[in-house]
Design goal:
heterodimer, A: mainly beta, seven-stranded mixed β-sheet, four-stranded antiparallel β-sheet, B: about 120 residues, mainly beta, about 0% helix
Chain lengths: ~110, ~120
């Protein structure tokens, strides 16, 4: 099973600042099959990124994904009020599918 | 519009059973693999089980293998999760989620149904 470790656990930033979230895998993720989701309180997760760097439908270009192998990054170039949430990475290159523990982006 | 609507959650005693349902609409249900993903209160996401579009292939997390059974009725556009021998650690919100292109990542999620296992 591939273990995904997300860091930091909490990121305290102000609107307009840049957010950089890390997701590291315990082994290389096949074909860079890595997705990112955003979840707000009381809501279901929303797909942001798949294939490490492809934006899902309707996701603004201030949100981007990068990385390969076992090291991946989600970047939000300029935080908007609606971006404050919890973010999860997920690998789908091998079963079982696994998620990281999440990074909370909170308002400083 | 794609919609996934879970139902069937509730309070059940340890060792008991529950069947969750997920009604799908707005897309050709039989063309998509779907999964159940759970989230314990205040915790992260955990994949539980998946089923192929035609229902012939099923997959389970080790934590539920032998206790949970995933199935689907494509004539009713509905996904199921039969949960037996429930444990306190199964307490969670259970989401159904559609896989894009049977790839293993999820482009649409339901709002979830809460399962509480407690005496």
């Amino acid at each position: 099973e591939i273990v995904l470790t997300q860091s930091p656990g909490t990121l305290s930033l102000s609107p307009g600042e840049r957010a950089t979230l890390s997701c590291r895998a315990s082994q290389s993720v096949n074909r860079n099959y890595l997705a990112w989701y955003q979840q707000k309180p009381g809501q279901a997760p929303r797909l942001l990124i798949y294939g490490a760097s492809s934006r899902a439908t309707g996701i603004p270009d201030r949100i981007s994904g990068s990385g390969s192998g076992a090291d991946f990054t989600l970047t939000i170039s300029r935080l908007e009020p609606e971006d404050f949430a919890v973010y999860y990475c997920q690998q789908y290159g091998s079963t079982p599918l696994t998620f990281g523990g999440g990074t909370k982006v909170e308002i400083k | 519009e794609v919609q996934l609507l879970e139902s069937g959650g509730g309070l059940v005693q340890p060792g008991g059973s529950l069947r969750l349902s997920c009604a799908a609409s707005g897309f050709t249900f039989s063309s998509y693999a779907v999964s159940w993903v759970c989230q314990a209160p205040g915790k992260g996401l955990e994949w539980v089980s998946a089923i192929s579009g035609d229902g012939r292939k099923t997959y389970y997390a080790d934590s539920v293998k032998g206790r949970f059974t995933i199935s689907r009725d494509n004539s009713k556009n509905t996904l199921y999760l039969q949960m037996n021998s429930l444990r306190a650690e199964d307490t969670a919100v259970y989401y159904c989620a559609r896989e894009l292109s049977a790839s293993g990542f999820f482009d649409n999620w339901g709002q979830g149904t809460l399962v509480t296992v407690s005496s």
